[in-house]
Design brief:
CATH architecture of the largest domain: Orthogonal Bundle
Strand content: under 5%
CATH superfamily of the largest domain: lambda repressor-like DNA-binding domains
Oligomer: single chain
Distance between the termini: 33 Å
Structural class: mainly alpha
């Protein structure tokens, strides 16, 4: 679920107009419109403010097993600092190679 869907679903579920959500959250109505149209992705703080104004909690939106592979995190935590640094360099080099290939 993306931020656009989360905000729109929360707002409609709370029975709020964009204008009322803007008033309650302190986020400009134009920004809410851009988020709901998928033109921008809000910062975490902004998303939290919008959801709280709709009487929702970010923790209720993020469901276990969606978009986050905790096994990868656990694997990385077992690496030494030096191994993590080597991995970061290798991933950065892969990203550069990908970027060069895309720009051709």
């Amino acid at each position: 679920m993306d931020a656009r869907s989360i905000v729109l679903e929360a707002r409609l579920g709370a029975g709020l107009s964009q204008r009322e959500l803007a008033r309650r959250s302190g986020v400009p109505q134009a920004s809410i419109s851009r988020i709901e149209r998928g033109l921008v992705s809000p910062r975490t703080e902004t998303l939290d403010r919008l959801l709280r104004a709709c009487a929702k909690d970010v923790g209720l939106i993020v469901r276990p097993g969606t978009g986050l592979d905790r096994t990868l995190i656990r694997d990385k935590l077992h690496l030494t600092t030096a191994d993590r640094a080597r991995l970061a360099v290798r991933e950065w080099e892969n990203t550069r190679a990908f970027d060069r290939a895309v720009r051709r």
